[in-house]
């Protein structure tokens, strides 16, 4: 007897598609927006002060219009970093992980959880000072993270990492085909 495998690929109507609006969006840590602002100002303000000092000493010529234009060009993106950081959101659902960002140009990234191969958390000195981490999810064969969620409180970031790792192990385990709701921490 030969076994026949039946393949199905039913069409879905638009109203049958899962809605991204139904996702339970979570905000990033409140300190993340402050860290972004501090990071930007911490870089540009000393550079601007150095430029003013050098022009006062006559090392470089001073042009008020050019100086104002440079300050405006540097400060506007830095100051927009704060509200841009406040609109970032993430959601963890049964089948995928979502990240939304953008003030003017909005972007939503979705990665299916069964495609996540590697997960890491990282934080630099400023993030450590604020108690934050960045969660990075990598898909198969990728050198760069497919999904990056910055600004998570450190404890939450580690919990999310472990949760997603446990779920990936449950998916990979052929003996656990039905999934296991009793994940031990």
From TrEMBL:
What sequence ranges are listed for the domain YdbS-like PH? 88-164
The record's listing under Pfam families reads: bPH_2
Q: Where are the transmembrane segments?
A: 36-60, 66-85
Record has Aminoacyl-tRNA synthetase as a keyword: no
Q: Which UniProt keywords apply?
A: Membrane, Transmembrane, Transmembrane helix
Q: Which InterPro entries match?
A: YdbS-like_PH
Q: What is this protein called?
A: YdbS-like PH domain-containing protein
């Amino acid at each position: 007897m030969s076994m026949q495998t039946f393949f199905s690929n039913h069409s879905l109507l638009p109203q049958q598609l899962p809605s991204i609006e139904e996702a339970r969006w979570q905000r990033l840590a409140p300190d993340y927006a402050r860290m972004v602002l501090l990071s930007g100002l911490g870089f540009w303000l000393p550079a601007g002060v150095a430029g003013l000092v050098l022009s006062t000493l006559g090392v470089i010529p001073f042009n008020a219009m050019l100086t104002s234009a440079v300050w405006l060009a540097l400060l506007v993106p830095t100051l927009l970093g704060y509200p841009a950081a406040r609109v970032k959101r993430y959601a963890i659902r049964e089948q995928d992980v979502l990240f939304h960002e953008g003030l003017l140009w909005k972007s939503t990234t979705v990665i299916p959880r069964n495609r996540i191969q590697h997960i890491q958390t990282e934080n630099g000195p400023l993030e450590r000072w604020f108690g934050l981490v960045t969660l990075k999810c990598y898909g198969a064969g990728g050198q760069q993270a497919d999904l990056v969620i910055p600004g998570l409180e450190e404890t939450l970031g580690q919990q999310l990492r472990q949760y997603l790792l446990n779920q990936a192990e449950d998916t990979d385990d052929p003996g656990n085909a039905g999934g296991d709701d009793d994940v031990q921490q």
